[in-house]
Write a structure and sequence with these properties.
This protein has 198 residues and is of the alpha+beta class. The chain is 17% helix and 36% strand. A hairpin with a 2-residue loop joins strand 6 and strand 7.
Length: 198
């Protein structure tokens, strides 16, 4: 009689992807605006020590956004892929500037005479100083829009936000008697002028 043959049974262990890891990274205001490369040091996923990773910070990234480093998380099980490392970006402050999405906001203080007579004011932007025209009769709180002086878009490198500059008027406090007399003459002239126009 012929014998009966059979296959030797075995069980294959399932493979699993490794877990994602989460960490925070702090960057400066300008580093987030223009982009940069930073070296970070974190605990290795296998617990063997500290590993150093180079991280590219894309230009225009905002506070709270995450950068994904693929394969830098926990190792997989039974040949599974390693998880990812998710870095939540914390953007620092820059004195004199406030950011909202792609737009930035700042202030400029001008002399009382410039507000009345008009002139120019030097405004600091993210890329340097620019000269802005001040119209005669400018009021405190007036906003000047500097088109394209804001933050670059992460999705479109050719698109930028704007900068909005709020004008503050420096009202003189300690005036000489001569200056006070001149201001009174100025006030009287303005009143006479408004009556004549009426």
């Amino acid at each position: 009689f012929g014998g009966f043959g059979g296959q030797k049974g075995y069980r294959q262990q399932a493979s699993y992807r490794g877990e994602d890891l989460h960490a925070d990274i702090t960057v400066g205001f300008d580093e987030a605006a223009f982009g940069c490369d930073k070296m970070i040091h974190i605990q290795a996923a296998d617990g063997t020590g500290v590993q150093s990773l180079s991280v590219h910070i894309p230009a225009g990234i905002s506070d709270g956004k995450s950068i994904r480093l693929r394969g830098k998380g926990m190792p997989g099980v039974s040949g599974g892929k390693a998880g990812d490392l998710l870095l939540k970006v914390r953007v620092g402050k820059r004195p004199g500037f406030e950011r909202k999405d792609m737009d930035v906001y700042s202030k400029v203080t001008i002399p009382f005479t410039t507000a009345v007579l008009g002139g120019e004011a030097v405004v600091q932007t993210l890329t340097g100083r620019v000269v802005c025209k001040i119209n005669p009769g400018t009021q405190s709180g007036t906003k000047i829009r500097l088109k394209g002086k804001g933050i670059v878009s992460m999705k479109d490198a050719g698109r930028y936000g704007d900068q909005y500059v709020t004008v503050q008027i420096d009202v003189p406090k300690n005036l000489s008697n001569e200056a006070k007399r001149k201001l009174k003459e100025f006030e009287a002239a303005c009143r006479n002028g408004s009556r004549g126009a009426a």
